[in-house]
Specification:
single chain, Rossmann fold, 12 strands, elongated, D-isomer_2_OHA_DH_cat_dom, NAD(P)-bd_dom_sf
Length: 327
C-alpha cells in the first residue's frame, strides 16, 4: 500500500521532517522551483499538509482534492482557514499544551523585565553610565499590583498560577466566566483595564479580537499602567499603542508579538520604556521539538485511524459531521 502523501509548507522542525520522510511520502517544495508549477504537479496526490508557516487559505485548500488533514505547527492557527476546512471535511490540528509552560515563563519574564526596567538598566551599564551616577529608581514594582489577563486559556491559567507566587491580585477577561477559578472575572475589556496596573494579553487572533486593545482600552489602563502582549500582534491597535506610549497615556509595554512581524515600528524601537522580543514565547529547542513531535503524531494518528491528538475547535474529533466528502 502506498504511503500517504504529505506536502510540507514552510520550514518544519528537523524532528518532523525526519519522521515524515520515514513514515510518509513527503513532498517538499524545492527552494529554486516554480512554486505554482510544483503545487500543480503534486496536487492530486496530497492527502495531508504539514505547516511550518504561511497562509493556508480556502484557495490553497481547494487545490488538493484528496486533502484530509492540515497539521499546523503552533497553538495559534489563524494562518489556516479552519472554517473552510471544516466545510470540506478536512481535519485541522495544532500543537497546544506542550508550549504552555514555556510561554507562561516568558510572559512572566517579559512582565518583570518591563516593570523593573531590566533592559534599560542593562543598556545603562553597557553605555558606561553607572560610573557617572546610579541608575534612577525604577517607576514600576510588582508589590501590591493588580494583573489583568486577557484570555484565560491554557497559557493564561499558567501565567496566573505563576503570578500568584508573586503576590499579584489577578483578574481575567474572556468570553465566559470560569466559576471554578478564584480570580475576578470581567466581561468588559475596558473594565478590566481600569481595574489593572498590568494588562497582559494572550488573546488569540480572531475576527472578534482584531485590534481589541485600542486607544480606549489603553486610556482605561492609565498613565501608571503597563501593557504586555504574548498573544498575537493583530489583537492590538499598534498605532494607538505607539501614541499611548508617546503621550504618557500608559507608562510602559513589553511586546513579544507585533502586527506585521518581523517589522517592528521604528517608534517602538526608539522608546526606552518598551521591551521588544522577536516572538520567542515558545522558542526553545526543548519546546519546539516537543511541538514538532506533536505535529507529527497528529499526522501519524490520523492516517492509522486512531484519530488526531489535538484537533482544533472547528474540526472536533470524533465528529459525525467531519466526513471526508472529497475522496
Amino acid at each position: 500500500m502506498p504511503k500517504p502523501q504529505i506536502l510540507a509548507l514552510g520550514k518544519l522542525m528537523p524532528v518532523v521532517t525526519e519522521g515524515l520522510q520515514a513514515e510518509f511520502d513527503l513532498r517538499e517544495i524545492p527552494p529554486d522551483a516554480d512554486r505554482e508549477a510544483f503545487l500543480q504537479s503534486v496536487a492530486t496526490g496530497v492527502r495531508g499538509l504539514a505547516c511550518g508557516g504561511g497562509l493556508v487559505d480556502s484557495a490553497l485548500q481547494d487545490r488538493f482534492p484528496k486533502l484530509e488533514i492540515i497539521a499546523n505547527f503552533g497553538v495559534g492557527y489563524d494562518n489556516v482557514d479552519a472554517v473552510h476546512a471544516a466545510r470540506l471535511g478536512v481535519m485541522v490540528t495544532n500543537t497546544p499544551d506542550v508550549l504552555t509552560d514555556e510561554v507562561a515563563d516568558l510572559a512572566m519574564g517579559l512582565m518583570i523585565a518591563t516593570v523593573r526596567e531590566i533592559a534599560s538598566s542593562d543598556r545603562w551599564v553597557r553605555a558606561g553610565n553607572w560610573t557617572q551616577s546610579p541608575y534612577p529608581l525604577s517607576h514600576g514594582t510588582l508589590r501590591g499590583k493588580k494583573l489583568g489577563i486577557l484570555g484565560l486559556g491554557r497559557i493564561g491559567k499558567a501565567v496566573a498560577k505563576r503570578a500568584e507566587a508573586f503576590g499579584l491580585g489577578i483578574s481575567y477577561y474572556g468570553r465566559t466566566e470560569k466559576p471554578d477559578l478564584p480570580y475576578t472575572y470581567f466581561s468588559s475589556l475596558k473594565d478590566i483595564a481600569s481595574h489593572s496596573d498590568i494588562l497582559l494579553s494572550v488573546l488569540p487572533a480572531t475576527g472578534a479580537t482584531h485590534k481589541a486593545v485600542n486607544a480606549e482600552i489603553l486610556e482605561a489602563l492609565g498613565s501608571d499602567g503597563t501593557f504586555i502582549n504574548v498573544g498575537r500582534g493583530s489583537t492590538v491597535d499598534e498605532e494607538a499603542l505607539v501614541k499611548a506610549l508617546q503621550d504618557g497615556t500608559i507608562h510602559s509595554a513589553g511586546l513579544d508579538v507585533f502586527a506585521d512581524e518581523p517589522n517592528v515600528p521604528a517608534a517602538l524601537k526608539a522608546m526606552d520604556n518598551v521591551v521588544l522580543l522577536p516572538h520567542i514565547g515558545s522558542a526553545s529547542k526543548h519546546t519546539r521539538n516537543a511541538m514538532g513531535r506533536l505535529q507529527l503524531e497528529n499526522l501519524r494518528r490520523w492516517f492509522d485511524g486512531t484519530g488526531p491528538v489535538t484537533p482544533v475547535a472547528e474540526t472536533p474529533w470524533p465528529a459525525e459531521r467531519l466526513s471526508l466528502n472529497r475522496n
